[in-house]
Amino acid sequence: MAGCTPGATPAVQAVEGHVPRVGVDVRLSAVDADGKGRQAQWQGETLALREPPIAGSADIADVRYVLDQDKQPGLQIRYRPEAHQRIHDGTAALVGQRAALSVDGRVLMVATVKGPFGESMMLSGLPSIAEAQALAKHITGQ
């Protein structure tokens, strides 16, 4: 099961440079319970993703493959400082509601927002190390 948690692992907190490639669309979007928004599929469910997204590719300072605290493959996403407050406010307004992370229109994860975050997030529960590495390479080219 995929999920997201706030926070950065210590090894990647101070590292810059793995930004999304031009043309790669990474989005953190609210899932609209009333069905208003851009349609997307996830695990057999049709979702409506609100526009504009809470965060997009331009807000990302770093994306990289990591192993989470349970040694499961995941992606660490750190946001640019100028986006922190906007993302924090956007996720604070969604506490108890669902948000989706998508790459190039493909929903990777849907989770209930437990609390606000703005600096970083961890996408965990990817099926394999190879898939997590391939996804990071697709996003960043590295």
Quick synopsis:
This is SecDF P1 head subdomain domain-containing protein. With 142 residues, the protein is an alpha+beta fold. It has helices at 84-92, 129-140; strands at residues 3-6, 26-30, 38-42, 45-49, 60-67, 73-79, 98-103, 106-112, 120-124.
Strand order of the largest sheet: 1-9-6-5
Q: Roughly what percent helix?
A: 10-25%
Beta-strand portion reads 35-45%
- Quaternary status of these chains? single chain
Q: What is the architecture at the second tier of CATH?
A: 2-Layer Sandwich
How would you characterize this protein structure?
The chain has helices at 84-92, 129-140, and strands spanning 3-6, 26-30, 38-42, 45-49, 60-67, 73-79, 98-103, 106-112, 120-124. By secondary structure, the protein is α+β, with helices and mostly antiparallel strands. The chain has a single domain, classed as Gyrase A, domain 2, CATH 3.30.1360. A 4-stranded antiparallel beta sheet has the order 1-9-6-5, covered by helices on one side. Strands 2-7-8 form a 3-stranded antiparallel beta sheet, with no helix packed on it. The protein has a two-stranded antiparallel ribbon with strand order 3-4. A hairpin with a 5-residue loop joins strand 5 and strand 6. Residues 9-14 have low confidence and may be disordered.
